[in-house]
């Protein structure tokens, strides 16, 4: 089009004369027009409304995620360069974009970044200039295709959290001990064979959590005892044959996981599959002293047990492992065995919003002793952040089943008609809630001490562009769940809750819902086992009991009962029942399902 000479029709002679330029002038003009056209096209390509809004409002946070963003990345060949001009940003998230395979070196200009989240993309490399981001505290590169990490990462002196799980990494860069403020490292689900020597350094005196499960690690150095702040160590499903006795010298270690390793010490292998951390560390400590010291230690321990527990001695000690192995038990109650089985009817309209749902009822979950409820809520949050992709893949909701009036309906409502009593708030419409959350998020941005949005605020973008919202409605017509944002105060769980209704919703697939539910129930079994072992005091928060009372042995059983819940369509035809025979089938050595 640009190469075709312009020929005015019906114009004046002056106009025609003006258009009859010399050849050189015409070529020059055509070149200018071509450059202008190309520049204009590039400018239009880079006009991303989210970026323009962040620049205009001088925002400190920016989240780009999902299919729409991925399409633009694909058409532009990457992220627009205008993104790297937002130098006020301290929180940047670009996630769930399979077309994103690399990050441009221009990211070095975002020197105020404190959190950089680039998870669930297809990144194959990260530029070494990332080391220039001296203010960076959180770096999340999980679920990508990274085979190595840049050495520049070791220059991040303020780095607190590093998550590079679910990649193809074969190792970690040397020099991580220079990141002296590291508190959490997650390198799970990679191909790592060994830890760098300087990882176990006295300089990392703030490192409290190290997760390296599902790798190919063959040796764990005794130097790990230098990590004086280490509280959680997970090296399950690796290729370890030995556990160093020096591990018992970690003064703050509270939780260890060595499951799935073929240890040469078979007694120790049995212990790591069933015993609590304290017992394992005591065993390792005894091995470190030598056989004679171990026998002496065992003798002293038995004497103390006889003094404090009259009828519990050697027999109980010898059977500890067997008892522990039998504690993680889930018994499934078939829907036909329940006198008043709960059903959930799914409306046809949800198929365009959030179509997938599974539910079940759980009894036997001990929430009353000590911090049991707190641990359960933390575990749910962790699943939301990891397996659920920060609620973008799936959302979990838990209810006190005694406060739920069935049958339930999974339906959709316009934002102005969806009324809910959000957790910790008054009743309001979805419109009012979203508006309130946006105002709170804006207020948090203005506060210097709060660098990014938290709580419910970080999920607001999940509803953008929706004209109807999904909701779970009880027999009274009350909304008890508004996924992926909040549950209702009406069915909130407490320490006194004895039966839970659990729902998992997703816009991805039904299998996603089942996978998340499986993971949650397995985690609940682990937590119940932990609570039963530790025999914490009940009523510690004053919610129900004015006096603190120890939980009785007979009452603290770790067995869970999971009752099936049927989900049907509007005509009553079965859509799904959970759990089915194909669910909860993951092979875990000390996890048993009884049908």
TrEMBL record:
Keyword check for Transmembrane, yes or no: no
- Bias (Basic residues): 302-314
Question: Under what name is this protein listed?
Answer: Leucine rich repeat containing 47
> Which Gene3D superfamilies does the annotation name?
Phenylalanyl-trna Synthetase, Chain B, domain 3, Ribonuclease Inhibitor
Basic and acidic residues composition bias: residue spans: 291-301
B3/B4 tRNA-binding domain location, by residue? Answer: 353-529
What residue spans carry the region label Disordered? 286-320, 533-558
Q: Which residues form the signal peptide?
A: none
- Which source organism? Poecilia reticulata (Guppy)
Q: Keywords of this protein's UniProt record, alphabetized?
A: Leucine-rich repeat, Repeat
Show the GO MF annotations.
phenylalanine-tRNA ligase activity; RNA binding
Query: Which GO biological process annotations does it have?
Result: phenylalanyl-tRNA aminoacylation
């Amino acid at each position: 089009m640009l190469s075709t000479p312009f020929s005015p029709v019906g114009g004046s002679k002056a106009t025609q004369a003006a258009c009859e330029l010399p050849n050189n002038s015409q070529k020059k003009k055509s070149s200018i027009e071509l450059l202008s056209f190309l520049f204009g096209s590039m400018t239009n390509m880079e006009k991303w409304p989210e970026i323009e809004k962040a620049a205009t409002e001088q925002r400190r946070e920016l989240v780009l995620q999902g299919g729409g963003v991925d399409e633009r990345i694909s058409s532009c060949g990457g992220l627009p360069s205008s993104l790297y001009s937002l130098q006020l940003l301290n929180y940047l998230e670009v996630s769930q974009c399979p077309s994103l395979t690399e990050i441009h070196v221009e990211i070095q200009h975002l020197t105020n970044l404190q959190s950089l989240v680039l998870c669930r993309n297809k990144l194959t490399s990260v530029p070494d200039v990332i080391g220039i981001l001296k203010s960076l505290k959180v770096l999340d590169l999980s679920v990508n295709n990274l085979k190595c990490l840049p050495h520049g990462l070791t220059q991040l002196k303020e780095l607190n959290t590093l998550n590079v799980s679910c990649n193809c990494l074969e190792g970690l860069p040397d020099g991580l001990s220079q990141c002296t403020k590291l508190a959490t490292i997650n390198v799970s689900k990679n191909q790592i064979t060994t830890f760098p020597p300087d990882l176990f350094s006295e300089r990392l005196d703030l490192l409290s959590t190290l997760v390296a499960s599902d790798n190919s690690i063959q040796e764990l150095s005794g130097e790990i005892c230098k990590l004086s702040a280490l509280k959680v160590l997970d090296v399950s499903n690796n290729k370890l044959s030995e556990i160093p006795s020096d591990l018992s010298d970690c003064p703050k270690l509270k939780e260890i996981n060595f499951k799935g390793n073929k240890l040469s010490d078979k007694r120790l292998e049995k212990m790591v599959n069933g015993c609590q951390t304290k017992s394992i560390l005591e065993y390792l400590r005894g091995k470190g002293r030598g056989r004679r010291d171990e026998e002496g230690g065992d003798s002293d321990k038995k004497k103390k047990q006889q003094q404090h527990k009259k009828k519990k001695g050697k027999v109980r000690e010898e059977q500890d492992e067997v008892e522990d192995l039998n504690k993680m038990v889930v018994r499934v109650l078939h829907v036909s065995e329940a006198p008043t089985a709960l059903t959930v009817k799914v409306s046809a309209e949800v198929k365009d919003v959030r179509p997938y749902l599974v539910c079940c009822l759980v009894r036997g979950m001990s929430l009353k002793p000590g911090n049991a409820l707190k641990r359960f809520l933390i575990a749910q949050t962790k699943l939301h952040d990891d397996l659920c992709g920060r609620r973008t893949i799936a959302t979990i909701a838990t209810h006190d089943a005694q406060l739920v009036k069935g049958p339930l309906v999974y339906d959709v409502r316009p934002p102005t008609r969806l009324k809910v009593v959000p957790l910790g708030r008054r009743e309001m419409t979805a419109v009012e809630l979203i508006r309130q959350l946006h105002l709170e998020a804006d207020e948090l941005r203005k506060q210097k001490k709060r660098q990014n949005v938290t709580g419910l605020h970080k999920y607001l973008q999940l509803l953008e562009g929706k004209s109807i919202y999904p909701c779970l409605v009880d027999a009274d017509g009350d909304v008890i769940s508004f996924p992926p944002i909040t549950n209702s105060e009406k069915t909130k769980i407490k320490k006194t809750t004895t039966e839970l209704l659990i729902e998992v919703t997703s816009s991805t697939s039904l299998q996603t819902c089942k996978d998340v539910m499986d993971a949650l129930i397995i985690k609940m079994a682990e937590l119940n086992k932990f609570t039963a072992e530790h025999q914490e005091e009940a009523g510690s928060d004053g919610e129900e009991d004015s006096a603190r009372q120890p939980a009785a042995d007979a009452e603290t059983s770790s067995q869970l009962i999971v009752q099936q819940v049927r989900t049907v369509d509007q005509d009553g035809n079965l859509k799904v029942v959970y759990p089915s025979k194909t669910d909860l089938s993951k092979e875990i050595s000390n996890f048993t399902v009884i049908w």
